[in-house]
Amino acid sequence: MADFLENRTYDEIQPGQTAELQRTLTRDDVALFSKVSGDLNPIHMDEEYARAQGAKGVVGHSLWATGLISSLLANVLPGPGTVYRNQDAEFHRQVQLGDILTAKVKVVEKLPERLVRLECSVVNQAGERVMTGRAVVVAPTTKQRIEVADVADISVRHHDSFAALFDKVRALEPIPTAVVHPVDQVSLAGAMEAAEATFIAPILVGPEGRIRAVAEEHGIDLGGTEILDVEHSHAAAARAVELIREGTAEILMKGSLHTDEVLSAVLNKATGIRTERRISHIFVMDVPTYPKLLLISDAAVNIAPDLEAKRDICQNAIDLARTVGVERPKVAILSAVETVRPKIQSTLDAAALCKMADRGQITGGVLDGPLAMDNAINLEAARIKKIDSQVAGVADVLIAPDLEAGNILAKQLIFLANAEAAGIVLGARVPIILTSRADSVRTRRASAATAVLHAHAVRQGLHDKPAH
């Protein structure tokens, strides 16, 4: 936009004069228009609902196109000082996310009392009519050149997906959870917060004296929580895993110890709780600029997974996506490009994973890849690349080519896009919650809620339990 707005007075305006602008409809535009107008029709808000109605995806508001006309009249022709008198509009087709709309006004005639009649039109990138109509305005008499005012930055959060998780869990029975070595404020408070929310029934495994000292120092109410006294972190991990093997606990929660210590006990061939499936970590992310929960794997466990490991990473992520309410998850296998390149191993792996899904070696989801990040999560990017896919632009799950890529992606979303990230490890006999000192109270609760939902899903036989 120009730094200044300059109008055309009634005397300057002549029939045939035109002005136009171009805008691309974004998800933020739809969200803000819905909020301001109060129009909450689900076709503007819900991807799945819109597709069920025959649309390609979320549909923009028809009046958003009319708003472009209003912008032209107010800013350009006639510009500042203009007063709207009337507008008629006829709408010809739906506006989709990513559509590039060109709005145009043309002076038809000048009327008495400074009235000006203009022809109005909006077309999309294909030249198809979106809206046509006429407007009548009162044109200004005084020439004005006005500096454009700064508009406050607006951050759009399209949803609160974690709240939906919390609502689902509140109706469920708390799951017995072995909390390993919770001897600092963060890990102990996280466990007790989840207990207070009735998500879990914690069993604290660690040095009892240290646990009680932390609770007293930080005012954490342990109530009647069971504490199993063991001398150090290695013993705590081993004892917690033993509780899982006995059936006393159905979730494992990491406390104040290294992740390697927990996973070493989990994967011990003789005494652990490993299965035939590879374990993997899945971030469950609420991203303000994405319309639904976004799962990312693996960003914490498998450093450079081979094809066999990636198969299990995909299956674990699909299982968790189904747990949190996605009936048939759309899984994007990420790479730097969206075509198979023999010199880029991740593209070969992506193609093989898709074929494995076709052959029933990965079940419960729809896979596509290789996909670059942009066309995995952005419909317009996928459209520009002419990618015809059920997954491109609307992915529920992103499978990273390796741990470094996955970790960088997740951290970028957290620190640059204000995303919130819960997460658990799947592939063992039970879900494992890996807490972090950087986790907020809300993300710790979301991780616990996710694990509880998954434990209940396994109880109900909604997922194939990995073979022991």
How would you sum up this structure, described in words?
The N and C termini lie far apart (62 Å). Helix content is 35%, strand content 24%. The chain is elongated, with a radius of gyration of 28 Å. It contains 14 helices and 20 strands. The strands form 5 sheets. The chain has a 6-stranded mixed beta sheet with strand order 17-16-18-15-14-19, with helices on both faces. Strands 2-6-7-8-4 form a 5-stranded antiparallel beta sheet, covered by helices on one side. Strands 12-11-10-13-20 form a 5-stranded parallel beta sheet, sandwiched between helices. By secondary structure, it is α/β, with parallel strands linked by helices.
